[in-house]
Amino acid sequence: MAEFKSVAKVGAIKEGEGKSFSVDGKLVAVYLKDGEYHAINDACPHMGASLAAGYLEDHNVICPWHAWRFCVKDGLWVDNPKSNIRTPSYPVRVEGDFIQVQMPD
Q: Assuming Cys at both sites, which of 13, 30, 61, 63 could form a disulfide with 68, CB separation 3.0 to 4.6 Å?
């Protein structure tokens, strides 16, 4: 089973924002929304922009390059959910003072 990896201390991400972290060689965007942490692949599947640099609106991040919107809970492209285009999402937990992300094996 894949292990959870510490990416930051609690408090390192402001409410309503995201930050990018390297986890097992992949860039992961971690967001804090309504007191809960969510993690998705940091690279937009459209053109590769950093989704952590995007604007968070509700539970959707808006890509800073072309305004594609992705749900930070499950990575679904919300502009066309029937397309089933999504960016990978990852489980997140808080263990002690650390935010941890679980990457697939």
A: 63
Sheet architecture: strand order including 17-23: 17-23, 26-33, 36-41, 89-90
Distances from the Cα of 56 to the Cα of 2, 4, 12, 31, 77, angstroms:
28, 25, 16, 9, 14
Q: Which residue numbers in the chain have pLDDT < 70? A: none
Distance, in Å, from the CA atom of 69 to the CA atom of 42, rounded to the nearest integer, reads: 13
CA 27 to chain centre: 9
Does the global pTM surpass 0.70? yes
- Alpha-carbon torsion 7, 10, 12, 18, what sign? positive
Token pair 């094996």 is found at: 105
